[in-house]
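Here is one chain, start to finish.
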Amino acid sequence: MISYIRGELVAVEEEKVIVDVNGVGFGIFMPGQAMNQLPALGKEMKLHTYMNVREDAIQLFGFLTRDDLQIFKLVIGVSGIGPKGGLSILSHLSPDELRFAVMSHDVKAISGAPGIGKKTAEKLIIELKDKLRIEDVLERNADVSKSAASSSAANQVQAEAIQALVALGYGSTEAASAVRKVEVTEALTVEDVLKQALKYMIS
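Its structure:
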């Protein structure tokens, strides 16, 4: 099992990258969204990898963070979704967007991924709803310099703002993305966050 690969990025293709590790080029499939965050060609990079062994091929799937890799493993653990399907979902939705879509039962957002139908999206939501937490997203995006108490308060404000936007008719994934762009401080109320998030959504 190859847990990660560190080497020089030498090529970027449609669905994969080529990473040179001591003269050996590894072809690694990656989600489209992650490929937008790659370093320049010739730069060193590290990818956390999942190896898929089939009768006719050995494939490597790469992710920029261990969290992204864990989300991928959860997705392909859903019956009926293989590595290619998991890659399609994570090319369409970022790991955080997928968390919000699952927790808010946003079938439309998930089934928007190529090759993923409504029934498969519903199955994914059912099987992952107890394994993914919105709090993980909010805590990871909280300012690490804040105290635990103030971080918790900021997370609560963000969560309430997202719920309010959904109640107004916005999609949960769209709402979560807008709220996460707002720099939440102790001085901001839910109403303040809503106003700023709405500016992002209509701009």
